[in-house]
Design brief:
mainly alpha; globular; 77% helix; disordered N terminus
Length: 390
């Protein structure tokens, strides 16, 4: 039975590698055709328009994505999982605060964070701290914060990690208050493993400074790039579709800019699987089409933090009651922070559409082009190597 399950998982993983690799390679190649106007004219106006808009988004985001990946690698070098676990133990309030803070810079998506949380739980992290880590980590990371600054504005860039901290802290505290009994990890979860479980430099990487740097850069520009490449490309492509095909007044006409738009983003985001980096270009495109910053924030937080697979994993890992706390903490806190963000823009008299993406304009155009080509080639190379692996 176990062997059959392993075969199924192996086939599923192989199929996922093939699909994600093919998508990244095809879309990456398509984006590289953008400078050739004669080719664009041959493939039709709508498709060429979408590709052109996607290219412009990629130009603005690429320098910040590469910078975010680099910083992620540096953070990985200095992380010590055992020290983190010690801070997430007995003191229920402090451990929740620490867990929320530790989770903010880590570039882990909602599915890959579960094995990491299980590992921390095995080493003594409280249920509340584990809950806080599970919530705050996928909502943001240094890579997604960098892209947010490039494609959006400083206010949303600041609000994103703050909202991540608040949702994680509230979820962890509610877990400690409502579920005081510390239960053992179920046997089937105890045996669970994953490559994302490792935080920091493993023993096999070596102890020298250069060995650690090499490991950190490999983590950033191979492992992490492999994890986010597909979703990043799809996110940029989706943003290109929204920018080119959706009329400027469509969202305002049908959904408005207040609570209705926020709940629409909530309904879209909860079941959707999308990483924090990939959600950013989509949210930026939606703001450019008239959606409120608060509604965009709801999508930015809920999309990466929740999806059907993660909810099932949290239910198995922490229990049904914890899964309810997990969902309510994310949705309620994010909606409240969305209202606060909208009020801040109104109070300051700022037009979101006027300031969106202005930070990206400070980067020289030549650097944007080099960064975009480098990022595409990096993603294609990483995915090609992934396809070659058994």
């Amino acid at each position: 039975m176990v062997k059959l399950e392993e075969i199924k998982i192996s086939i599923s993983e192989r199929l996922e590698k093939l699909i994600s690799g093919a998508v990244v390679i095809v879309l990456g190649a398509a984006l590289l055709l953008i400078p050739h106007e004669e080719i664009l004219l041959k493939i039709g106006v709508p498709l060429s328009g979408v590709l052109r808009e996607s290219w412009h988004i990629l130009l603005e985001a690429s320098p910040y994505i590469l910078f975010g990946l680099f910083i992620s690698g540096i953070i990985e070098i200095f992380i010590n999982k055992e020290k983190i676990a010690r801070h997430l133990g007995p003191n229920k309030f402090k451990s929740v605060i620490y867990a929320s803070l530790f989770g903010i810079p880590l570039p882990l998506c909602s599915c890959s964070v579960v094995p990491t949380a299980i590992s921390l739980r095995k080493q003594g992290a409280s249920k509340g701290a584990t809950m806080a880590f599970l919530i705050s980590t996928p909502e943001t990371g240094v890579d997604s914060i960098a892209i947010t600054y490039a494609l959006m504005d400083p206010i949303i860039t600041f609000f994103r990690p703050i909202t991540s901290f608040i949702t994680g802290t509230v979820g962890g505290i509610m877990e400690n208050i409502l579920l005081t009994k510390e239960e053992k990890i179920p046997a089937h979860i105890e045996r669970m493993h994953g490559h994302e479980e490792e935080l920091g430099v493993p023993e096999s990487a070596g102890h020298g400074f250069l060995a650690k740097i090499k490991y950190g850069m490999k983590y950033a520009f191979v492992d992490l790039t492999d994890d986010i490449a597909l979703w990043l490309v799809l996110g940029i492509a989706a943003a290109g579709v929204i920018t080119y095909l959706i009329p400027d007044t469509f969202i305002i006409d049908y959904f408005g800019s207040g609570w209705k738009a926020m709940f629409m983003m909530l309904i879209m985001g909860v079941p959707l699987y999308i990483c924090a980096s990939a959600s950013t270009p989509i949210a930026a495109a939606l703001i450019a089409k008239g959606i409120s910053p608060g509604a965009a924030l709801v999508f930015l937080m809920v999309g990466p933090a929740t999806n059907t697979a993660t909810i099932i994993m949290v239910t198995k890992f922490l229990g049904k009651k914890s899964a309810v706390i997990y969902l309510l903490s994310i949705t309620v806190c994010t909606l409240l922070m969305g209202f606060v963000l909208n009020y801040l823009y109104q109070f300051c008299g700022i037009n979101p559409k006027a300031v969106i993406g202005k930070a990206g304009e400070i980067v020289p155009h030549s650097l944007e082009i080099v960064s975009s080509i480098a990022l595409i080639l990096l993603m294609v190379l990483v995915k090609t190597n992934t396809l070659k692996r058994p």
